[in-house]
Amino acid sequence: MGNTFYFQWEPTLMVWIQNILGQVGGEIAGVITSLGEETVMVAILGFIYWCYDKKFGVYVGTNLMVGLVANPMIKNIFLRHRPYMVHSEVKCLKQVHEGDLYDPLLQGYSFPSGHTSNASTMYFSLPVYGKKKWLVIMAIIMPLLIGVSRVCLGVHYPTDVIAGWILGAVVVTVMTYLQNKVKTKWKLYLWITVFSIPGCFYCTSNDYYTALGMMMGFFAANLYEEKYVKFETTTLFLKSVIRVVCGLAVFLIANAILKAALGVIAIEELENMIRVLRYGILVFITMGVYPMAFRWKKVFG
């Protein structure tokens, strides 16, 4: 299932780039693309939220979660196959997800690029709130490099990447306006969730249900933290490192445990809802429950 559409220059350009890059260039592109992956996003968001500025973290996190959901909702409308699935001369140099390389439900659809839109949403958000020159530079360079790396790796057409940049910019613009306009958080979160739920009726790829769970978990965690946890950020370098490292450990360990525990429930009809539940609990633990440990001042404070 899915659709095939592209401009003729796209696969031609991709093959030319891959031939120029060679093995070493492909490995470098793989390293660059990792800067737009889940663990790095969690680390950056975690540093901002747990250490630097909690309100800044909520702003960036809200934008990122909306972008995470919006991307697969668009992907599942266009259902565009990844370029390596269509053109045998285009090589997949870095597999997107585990499983069958040619299964679009596992690997996700191609348009727009998820890594690019996620990186754009994350990095475009930084100078809007932070208003510093070096953040502006980062907001330009990082999405550009990550987007180009997706083309180099053969997993996205150039037009996927361009659409990813545009989507990131639109999400940041719209969500900045809404977060400034709607002062009651739970109302904002409720409306965002309502507009996201329709994806359940037509999205077939796993990435939508992963993103929906993460978004709902983040919203719940933020409301829970504000009412019950109320942690304080820290300016101490060592304490910040400890918070981020421990937070990543909590994220990875909790993910492994939840995957194993909920994986026992092998009911095909409930697979998507179990995925939403898994990632919702995962983000709630990481962003809502884990900060309770910051009360241990000797280590985290």
H and E order: HHHHHHHHHHHH
Strand content: under 5%
Class computed from helices, strands and strand pairing: mainly alpha
* Arithmetic mean pLDDT: 91
> How many E strands?
0
How far apart are the termini? Answer: 52 Å
What is the CA-atom radius of gyration, in angstroms?
19 Å
Overall body shape = globular
Q: Count of helical segments?
A: 12
- Largest beta-sheet characterization: none
Give keywords.
single chain; about 300 residues; mainly alpha; about 70% helix; globular
How is this structure best described in words?
This protein is mostly helical and 301 residues long. It has a domain at 9-212. 72% of the residues lie in helices and 0% in strands. It has twelve helices and no strands. The protein has helices at residues 9-33, 38-52, 54-78, 83-86, 104-107, 114-130, 133-152, 158-181, 185-196, 206-229, 237-263, 271-289. α3 (54-78) runs antiparallel to α6 (114-130) and α9 (185-196) runs antiparallel to α10. The relative contact order is 0.14. The model has no long low-confidence stretch (mean pLDDT 91).
Task: Note the topology.
Elements: H1 9-33, H2 38-52, H3 54-78, H4 83-86, H5 104-107, H6 114-130, H7 133-152, H8 158-181, H9 185-196, H10 206-229, H11 237-263, H12 271-289
In short:
The chain has helices at 9-33, 38-52, 54-78, 83-86, 104-107, 114-130, 133-152, 158-181, 185-196, 206-229, 237-263, 271-289. By secondary structure, it is mainly alpha-helical. Helix 3 runs antiparallel to helix 6.
